[in-house]
């Protein structure tokens, strides 16, 4: 699938040399040839985390406070920088082309400001699987939502980059913005600083709003397919809709059990 991009969407926006010199064609070629490895990585990930979890059953948990602080802060910093760069291109499209084009544009994959960060975003979904190692090594509760989310989003991100799927701008910008706050929270919590309950509730709420937005954008893209503005494949649309609807149900259930159920219990106690 070749990109169909209006040259006016590639207007210079103060890109840095390392961004401008990034070879997005080579990156896409690599992803076209290797995106299926996301399936292999997912199998290895599942075997590893459940294997470690079984191994740790009769052993004392690792503390890993220092590595966890460094890990979380690094991902928070990356998310902040990448979000700022992608929002720059997003703001330009919203102001000059409108909402529809901001959803459907493939320019995020090739624009000098965003192309580097969109590629790193896709790769970061593999890196973020390291979150689970901290959970199983510290013997914290590993829920289905956690590992399902990691596996499905990595496969979707790699395949989406491979075909230069529509919706990349909003998907990356929103996800990175929320991950900045989420990993910053993990950093602070790992440092032993007590975080207000309302902050964790706000982060979970923002994740639910984000996923709801993804579902709505997929519906828009389905109705926009006839005028060929939004480029997508049926496998991607079906997979992403299945993923986002299940994630919406899982996150909503997690929200109710974690926050509303506890609130009701505290009222009766």
TrEMBL record:
- Spell out the InterPro entries in the cross-references: ELO_CS, ELO_fam
EC nos: 2.3.1.199
Q: Which reaction does it catalyse?
A: a very-long-chain acyl-CoA + malonyl-CoA + H(+) = a very-long-chain 3-oxoacyl-CoA + CO2 + CoA
Q: Where does it reside?
A: Membrane
How does this chain sit within the bilayer? Multi-pass membrane protein
The GO terms describing molecular function are:
fatty acid elongase activity
- Coiled-coil ranges per the record? none
Q: Which GO terms describe its biological process?
A: fatty acid elongation, monounsaturated fatty acid; fatty acid elongation, polyunsaturated fatty acid; fatty acid elongation, saturated fatty acid; positive regulation of cold-induced thermogenesis; sphingolipid biosynthetic process; very long-chain fatty acid biosynthetic process
Keyword Membrane in the entry? The reply is yes
The top EC class is transferase
Keywords annotated in UniProt? Fatty acid biosynthesis, Fatty acid metabolism, Lipid biosynthesis, Lipid metabolism, Membrane, Transferase, Transmembrane, Transmembrane helix
Q: What is this protein's name?
A: Elongation of very long chain fatty acids protein
Which species does the entry assign this protein to? Answer: Serinus canaria (Island canary)
Q: Which gene encodes it?
A: ELOVL3
């Amino acid at each position: 699938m070749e990109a169909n991009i209006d040259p006016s969407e590639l207007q210079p926006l103060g890109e840095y040399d390392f961004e401008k010199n990034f070879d997005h064609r080579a990156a896409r070629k690599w992803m076209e040839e290797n995106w299926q490895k996301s399936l292999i990585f997912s199998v290895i990930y599942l075997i590893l985390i459940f294997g470690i979890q079984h191994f740790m059953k009769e052993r004392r948990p690792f503390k890993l406070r220092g590595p966890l602080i460094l890990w979380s802060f690094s991902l928070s910093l990356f998310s902040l920088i990448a979000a700022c760069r992608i929002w720059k291109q997003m703001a330009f499209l919203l102001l000059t082309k409108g909402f529809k084009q901001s959803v459907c544009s493939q320019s995020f994959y090739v624009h000098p400001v965003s192309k580097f960060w969109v590629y790193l975003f896709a790769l970061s979904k593999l890196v973020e699987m390291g979150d689970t190692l901290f959970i199983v090594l510290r013997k914290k509760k590993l829920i289905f939502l956690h590992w399902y989310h990691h596996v499905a989003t990595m496969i979707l991100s790699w395949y989406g980059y491979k075909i230069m799927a529509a919706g990349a701008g909003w998907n990356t910008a929103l996800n990175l913005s929320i991950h900045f706050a989420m990993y910053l929270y993990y950093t602070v919590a790992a440092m032993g600083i007590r975080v207000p309950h309302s902050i964790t509730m706000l982060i979970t709420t923002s994740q639910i709003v984000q996923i709801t937005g993804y579902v709505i954008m997929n519906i828009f893209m389905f109705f926009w397919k006839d005028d060929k503005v939004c480029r997508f494949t049926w496998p991607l649309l079906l997979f992403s809709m299945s993923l986002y609807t299940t994630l919406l149900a899982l996150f909503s259930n997690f929200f109710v059990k974690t926050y509303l159920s506890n609130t009701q219990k505290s009222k009766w106690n």
